[in-house]
DNA sequence: ATAGTTTGACCGCGA
DNA sequence: GTCGCGGTCAAACTA
């Protein structure tokens, strides 16, 4: 933080105050900016990223996503290997509201109560398909 | 102005 | 009792 702005550099001065490289590399190296960079496996729900960390245990980057709905205790974790386009999505919990309606965007309404999606995802692993053979 | 995203730091649990 | 890891929150910035 503190990269663009903020008077933090008062100490001394090493001036500069310029930094444009806004690291946008959040996902695995997208190779070229042309071919559709890795798209997140949309499940039909909207997620909000609330954290990202590098798990050294498996040497992978793990991103934490939470359902936009507070009533929805659904959580999603996406992890990938630095250098591998394969993504592994781990679903935790289940959504308590129907799909976000339809609309491709927000809507609202839609479903909502009434049916609880009975898809008890207690930790499903979505293999990117590449070098992640579910081995099974 | 809002939403979404990003990074750092903090906490809890386990070994 | 200590250390490490994993997970979450808050703050800040950008679009």
UniProtKB/TrEMBL annotation:
Recite the UniProt keywords alphabetically: DNA-binding, Nucleus, Transcription, Transcription regulation
Domain (WRKY) spans 36-100
Q: Which domain of life is it from?
A: Eukaryota
Q: What is its main location?
A: nucleus
Low complexity: bias regions: 96-105
Subcellular location(s) of the protein: Nucleus
Query: Could you state a single Gene Ontology molecular function term?
Result: sequence-specific DNA binding
SUPFAM superfamilies in UniProt: WRKY DNA-binding domain
GO CC entries: nucleus
**Where in this protein does the record put region Disordered?**
1-42, 75-136
UniProt xrefs under PANTHER family: OS03G0657400 PROTEIN, WRKY TRANSCRIPTION FACTOR PROTEIN 1-RELATED
Task: Write the protein's name.
Answer: WRKY domain-containing protein
Source species of the chain: Hordeum vulgare subsp. vulgare (Domesticated barley)
